[in-house]
Amino acid sequence: QEKKIFTVQGPYPVIRSLLRARGWVERKLPSTGRPLSSPHPPNEEEEEEEEERWDEDPDGIHDLMSRLVRDQVPYFIWTNRHGAVDCRLLRQDQVVNHYARVGAFTTKEGLCLNLRNLPWFDQADPDTFFPRCYRLGAVDERQAFIEDFRLTAARSLLKAALERAGDVPAGTEQTPKSGEGPGERSHVHHTMLPTAGPGPPLPPQLVEEALQACEQHLGSLGHQDIDGDPPSPRMTGTDWDRFLRDYYHVVHEGAGLALSGAQQERCRALLRRLAGRLPQLGMEGDRNVWILKPGAKSRGRGIVCAARLEEVLRLAGSCAAPSARVGGWVVQKYVERPLLIFGTKFDVRQWFLVTDWNPLTVWFYRESYLRFCSRPFSLRRLDAARHLCNVSIQKQCRPARGRHPRLPPDQIWSCQQLQAYLAQVGQAGAWHQVMVPGMKTAVVGALRSAQDLVGSRKGSFELYGADFIFGEDCQPWLLEINASPTMAPSSAVTGRLCASVQRDTLRVVIDRRDDPTCPIGAFELIYKE
């Protein structure tokens, strides 16, 4: 009568024991363990571990109770994949931990497509928190990517030219918001090249072409005719091919670059003006590295970094087998100037909970954890061990010899450990003043952009895991959002945090219904329409 019957599918011992402690009885699923079996939707971080036999039921009491309720309706359903339950067949009083059609923001393609519409819903500009991204399967987007790659090369050449002249362009230096920087810049600048390179310097004409391309781009961004001069002819595809070859010589092979005093002044002024229009100018660096992702795979599978246009197009083309087309490929600008800890890249897994889509109601979790790469960051080597923070990728990598002794052996830190580190490098305020507010803005922006596409249902809820990386200035960049984030304890830190986020989720979705003032742990309501 109290409707305290639940069903759990997947490796969730914590959920099971918390519900039993509340006096709920489990209606066990048939022992196949895969009810209503559907293949894993690819956008979910499916658990690698099969459900262990952790069931603490020595006297068989729970088994007996389960048999007694086997014909009853379960009023609370927790599954590890959305496809396991057909929401259309549920009664109104059944609660389930998934919504339909969340691929609008939990697949790489969906996020890429829908965040572009954010300005229609919100004052927020997705370019300030989501690295620019293109779906290579769509002809117009593929062309837009090629144009972006070319213009990024032109800007990068100007940055490299100034860098060689010992001049750091304004607007491209990411300075932290408060106090002194995290003392890691030296690790980033090792990617810059010496002024003198092999062979004779490339002609000043190369810098001239880059300046003209950037001036035209600035014009198209709304600063029509910069100096009132007649517009210079635009570069053709063949011109660009030759320009890119020379650009690679300079940036990747260290060829010399001649730069006149007047050009140096123009470079500086132009980059300053572009910085006002392009929020990603600082984080994009000068090596034009992009990251190529299969549209709908989780746990870092199939992701590669590339720094040459033909390589990106070849990789995407060779992967465009009919099977790969289902999720399509996206290419996204790589954050070349990330915040590093002891010279090593990390990302943050940040949970949030949606309990209603109409009105949109979002809860942000105050605890999160970091995942480190196993090798030091370097843009000269684009291998997964240095650039992809996913636990399942790093498990396969051997840690570097001479790894910094303060980096965790299990590659995981809590956000408290990050805050302690930031305080040590003079950035005590960064977490609460810059990083957390930026993550909240990104989460709400992503949800609002997809809100009309999701299958909203009263009585459902869903816990998501967003992945963020931070620039040198501590600004967060949203990489992706996972439905069914893993709850497998891969370390002491995740063991503790995964248990607490499950406990607090049940407080919000079950306990609050009877007592709106009950404690909700580390959840904080950050958005309610």
Automatic annotation (TrEMBL):
Keyword Nucleotide-binding applies: yes
Compartments, record wording: Cytoplasm, Cytoskeleton, Flagellum axoneme
Catalytic activity entry: L-glutamyl-[protein] + glycine + ATP = glycyl-L-glutamyl-[protein] + ADP + phosphate + H(+)
Record's GO cellular component terms: axoneme; microtubule cytoskeleton
GO MF: ATP binding; protein-glycine ligase activity, initiating
BP-aspect Gene Ontology terms: cilium assembly; cilium movement
Acidic residues bias locations: 44-57
Cross-referenced PANTHER family: TUBULIN MONOGLYCYLASE TTLL3 (PTHR45870)
Region (Disordered): 29-57, 166-203
Protein name in UniProt: TTLL3 monoglycylase
Pfam families associated with the record: TTL
Gene name of the record: Ttll3
Key words, A-Z: ATP-binding, Cell projection, Cilium, Cytoplasm, Cytoskeleton, Flagellum, Ligase, Nucleotide-binding
Xref: InterPro entries: TTL/TTLL_fam (IPR004344), TTLL_monoglycylase (IPR051437)
